[in-house]
Specification:
Layout (H helix, E strand, L loop, with lengths): L5 E4 L16 E2 L7 E4 L4 E5 L8 E3 L12 E3 L1 H4 L38 E3 L26 E11 L7 E6 L6 E5 L2 E6 L6 E4 L7 E11 L16 E6 L2 E15 L3 E12 L5 E12 L8 E2 L1 E10 L3 E12 L14 E10 L2 E10 L4 E4 L3 E4 L2 E2 L2 E6 L12 H14 L3 E4 L6 H10 L2 E5 L14 H19 L5 E8 L7 H18 L5 E5 L7 H4 L3 E5 L12 H7 L4 E8 L18 E2 L6 E2 L4 E2 L5 E2 L6 H7 L5 E7 L30 H10 L6 E4 L14 E5 L3 E6 L2 E7 L7 E3 L8 E8 L2 E9 L6 E6 L3 E3 L5 E9 L12 E7 L2 E7 L13 E3 L4 E8 L5 E9 L2 E11 L1
Parallel strand pairs: 1-20, 5-6, 26-27, 26-37, 27-28, 28-29, 29-30, 30-31, 31-32, 32-37, 33-36, 46-53
Antiparallel strand pairs: 2-18, 3-14, 4-7, 4-8, 8-13, 9-12, 9-14, 10-11, 10-13, 15-16, 16-20, 17-19, 17-21, 21-22, 23-24, 24-25, 34-35, 38-39, 39-42, 40-41, 40-43, 43-44, 45-47, 47-51, 48-50, 48-52, 49-51, 52-53
Helix pairs in contact: 2-3, 4-5
Length: 879
């Protein structure tokens, strides 16, 4: 059962412009009567359907595999969950009569699940492995496919009687079906969507049993999707009269340094049986860099009264002027200042609900000739694409792991992220808002034309509007979001007018929810004369800007055909490399398709880190930089910021990609410094490659390349100058390609405008002799979620990295913590991530440590390896 609500605009509306109050005159609002409680703890989990199931359980006919046996189709009971996201006269769905849980033992409240695994959400059932060597590597060689059941008890005290009770799921992979107390409530197919279920009609005082079934089809993705309830889950308790789910929208239609207009729309719903007069008010508070709200409001919208009919919603909207607003913008030139709008609903002097909405004040301009401007300042989009997995942690959301990824990217000079190819976790946007990243927020990888046999094309027609509206409503208040992307390399590029019509339909849905940002779709095939790009506000080109497989770049052609549209590289480069691997001879040019004779070590399944090689359709960073020189190109999103599980081009038998600027463990590849040198031109830096430990190459040519933000550099070998070189107009690296290897020390001195700028040095390492552990944070929280990332390096007797070391390292931990995972960044390593021993890859390993919840204390991690001096590091957890 899903409660239907009618939406109407109240005749008693807020004033067109609210009252502005000066800084400090309004007090902080009282604590909200709304309760939002984490449901992440206390779950039981089991893979597979019960053996006593009366039929094969499937979402719809497309997933029936046992054609000669009965099957139970859940789709009719799930479709009503999306009714609130179907606009206008679109038909609404009603759940059929009957009980699809009857006969399924796992659904029964009295079922004994004591033998099931105990898990804490977010949970990825596949990340522990084992890896498989069977089949293709596209989905990461981990057991993400299959069916999983989750059960949990929820206690509702008598004081909750009369309240509205909701289940909010931030992400579950996939085809979720939910029961409460043995009755089906609803569900949602798309594994990347966030969604809400109204539990109220199914609740009872005391113990309630919540059951969630997921069905992750095989061959359902082109990368590792993960499995399970991999994002957070919440129980929300409200008064029957309350702010609707994602019901507050904040926009800033007029912005200047002197003043900003803040416009607030609030949808209030009434789940009671009687009409209600509700008073709605909003206060605006600044947030500090940690997201903490200031004690006093800086602006207040005058209260207004709405009449809300039973089972209906009323919409109120008003505006307020804020003097001297603190604008949101990306560092380093701007600051990501955020505000929060606190919207309260009350009746007869009693507060019923309060909702907090984070937002930012900024202007966006997408100039077809000069590029992207924010708050009047030109900003080149230096972005990366990233999938949602967190390496050895899998798809299970961890805020600290995500923050670490973004911190490293920001250090490189990255200012933008494309959420490839799906809506991200809510925590991602919270971090992007507070750190100042620009976001291209993407909805789908496929529409109606499939890419893999069981991908989301099966459910797209039924759910495209619900998914798209839910995505935009959830994310539209985030100031970091600057572009909506409705698709990635969709097959509808090839279907002419039909593809264009579908793109217009999806774009219209987005515009009806948010008209403040342009809409794009990442295109790898469409030409300027095709129908699909004509339906978009902005032109996003995947690889076509630099040219695919020798074809000319397409930026100019699109700019000529669409002179009034913003153009950018929505996916660029797809360069390939393995950290610390160097293959000889080295290509003399700037960009080559990786191949056995061009950068590949086929026997080892590695790609050279000279950073000249790419996927057949891609290009090196150097070539892409040159292609982006026209002023009308707004920037790029590189494929990818981090290596990710799955899509292991060019070696399908591997577990993870080679395209990342940072490897899967979080160790920087040489390419990191190439991007840093270009994206942070004012940051003094120089980086030499390769390492200088090559006993088998004495007397052989061993090219040396330097990435620097300087404009020239001089290279020295054992104190002898090997020449000073200056960058040309299209040079992004300095090359000494004729160096004869001899052991010793390489040093580079970089210059800028004739002045000494930066230096770097590498030296020949001795034999591996000792281990060294270093942590990104020596103290972290004892909350069962926070992490410390510990790097193990294999060093020589002098303490220098042994860059080719491959020792097996054994890790032991004592104290109130756990080794969650280990990794080394090697795409070929099929050791399960939970293993406490691992081969070093080119001298490095990673250990991920988590503190036990509520157990503060000292944690001691020791690393040992045969024939090497061990090391111990002490970490501390705090409550």
């Amino acid at each position: 059962m899903v409660r239907a609500l009618k939406l109407f605009r109240s005749a008693v509306a807020w004033a067109a412009v609210g009252t502005w109050l000066s800084l400090g005159v309004a007090a902080a609002p009282p604590a909200s009567p709304r309760a939002r409680l984490s449901l992440d703890d206390g779950w039981r989990f089991k893979k597979g359907d019960p053996p006593d199931a009366p039929a094969q359980l499937v979402y719809d006919e497309n997933f029936v595999t046992q054609t000669n046996t009965p099957h139970l189709i859940f789709k009719p009971w799930l479709l009503p969950t999306g009714n609130d996201f179907l606009a206008g006269a679109a038909p609404k769905f009603t759940a059929p009569d009957g009980d699809p849980g009857a006969g399924i033992s796992y659904v029964r409240p009295d079922f004994d699940d004591a033998a099931w695994d105990t898990v804490t959400l977010p949970h990825d059932w596949a990340i522990q492995g084992p890896f498989t060597t069977n089949g293709g590597g596209g989905m990461g060689r981990l057991p993400s496919a299959g069916i999983g059941w989750y059960r949990r008890k929820i206690n509702l005290p008598a004081t909750d009687a009369g309240k509205s009770i909701y289940l909010d799921v931030d992400g579950a992979m996939s085809y979720a079906a939910v029961w409460l107390n043995g009755k089906i409530v609803g569900g949602w197919p798309y594994g990347y969507a966030s969604w809400r279920l109204d539990l109220t009609p199914f609740t009872q005082t005391g113990t309630n049993v919540l059951v969630i079934r997921l069905d992750n089809p095989p061959e359902s993705s082109r990368w590792y999707p993960g499995g399970g309830i991999y994002r957070n889950v919440w129980l929300v308790k409200t008064s029957p009269v309350h702010v609707s789910h994602w019901g507050v929208t904040v926009t800033t239609p007029e912005v200047s340094a002197a003043s900003a207009t803040i416009q607030v729309q609030a949808a209030v719903e009434n789940n009671s049986a009687t009409p209600m007069m509700a008073t709605v008010a909003t206060q605006i508070f600044p947030l500090d860099s940690s997201g903490r709200r200031a004690a006093k409001a800086v602006a207040v919208i005058a209260p207004a009264v709405l009449r809300v009919a039973p089972g209906a919603r009323a919409m109120a909207e008003a505006a307020v002027a804020l003097e001297h607003p603190a604008l949101w913008g990306p560092p380093p030139g701007q600051r990501p200042n955020c505000y929060v709008a606190v919207t309260t609903v009350s009746s007869e002097g009693r507060e019923l609900d309060a909702e907090e909405t984070r937002f930012g004040i900024r202007t966006l301009k997408f100039d077809p000739d000069q590029g992207f401007f924010i708050n009047g300042a030109h900003v080149l989009i230096n972005g990366v694409c990233d999938h949602h997995d967190l390496g050895a942690l899998g798809a299970a959301l961890n805020r600290r792991a995500l923050q670490r990824q973004l911190e490293m990217l920001q250090e490189m000079g990255c200012n933008a992220i494309r959420t490839s190819h799906n809506p991200p976790a809510p925590e991602f946007l919270e971090l992007a808002d507070t750190m100042g990243f620009l976001v291209m927020d993407e909805s789908f990888d496929v529409w109606e034309r499939r890419k893999t046999p069981f991908d989301f094309h099966f459910a797209f027609r039924d759910w495209r509007e619900q998914d798209l509206r839910a995505h935009v409503r959830r994310d539209r208040n985030s100031p970091s979001v600057i572009l909506w992307s409705i698709g990635n390399e969709v097959g509808e590029q090839l279907t002419g007018d039909a593809g264009g019509a579908l793109a217009r339909t999806l774009s219209d849905i987005v515009r009806s929810e948010d008209s403040t940002r342009p809409i794009t779709s990442a295109m790898n095939w469409a030409r300027p004369t095709n129908a699909l790009p004509a339906a978009l506000d902005a032109i996003g080109l995947n690889y076509q800007g630099a040219g695919i497989r020798g074809s000319p770049g397409q930026y100019a052609a699109f700019h000529e055909h669409f002179p009034h549209k913003f153009i950018f590289g929505s996916e660029t480069a797809s360069a390939l490399s393995s950290r610390g691997v160097y293959v000889f001879p080295v290509a003399p040019g700037v960009s080559f398709a990786a191949a056995p004779a061009a950068g590949e070590d086929v026997a080892a399944r590695q790609v050279s880190a000279y950073e000249l090689y790419a996927a057949p359709f891609g290009a090196s960073a150097d070539k892409v930089f040159a292609s982006q020189s026209p002023s009308y190109v707004g920037g790029e999103f590189v494929w990818t910021g981090w290596d990710y599980l799955g899509e292991p081009t060019p070696f399908d038998s591997s577990r993870s990609s080679y395209s990342g600027i940072i490897d899967l463990a979080g160790f920087k590849k040489d390419r990191y410094y190439l991007y840093q040198s270009h994206w942070r031109p004012d940051f003094p830096m120089a980086h030499i490659l390769p390492h200088w430990t090559w006993p088998e190459r004495v007397g052989k040519i061993t090219p040396v390349h330097v990435f620097t933000s300087g404009d020239e550099a001089e290279l020295f070998l054992n104190g002898r100058s090997l020449g000073r070189k200056k960058k040309g107009p299209s040079d992004y690296r300095l090359r000494w390609d004729d160096i004869i290897y001899e052991p010793g020390a390489l040093k580079v001195v970089a210059y800028k405008n004739g002045a000494r700028w930066a230096t770097d040095a590498v030296a020949t390492a001795g034999d591996p002799a000792r281990l060294r552990l270093t942590a990104d944070r020596a103290t972290f929280q004892a909350d069962g979620r926070d992490l410390s990332f510990v790097t193990l390096t294999v060093n020589d007797a002098r303490g220098a990295l042994a860059p080719r070391a491959a020792s097996r390292i054994f890790f032991d931990l004592t104290g109130p913590g756990e080794i969650v995972a280990t990794d080394n960044g090697d795409a070929t390593d099929l050791e399960p991530f939970p293993a406490h021993d691992r081969l070093a890859f080119n001298g490095k390993c990673l250990v991920i440590i988590q503190g036990r919840a509520g157990q503060a204390g000292r944690i001691h991690l020791t690393a040992r390896a045969a024939g090497l001096q061990d090391d111990t590091i002490t970490l501390s957890t705090a409550r």
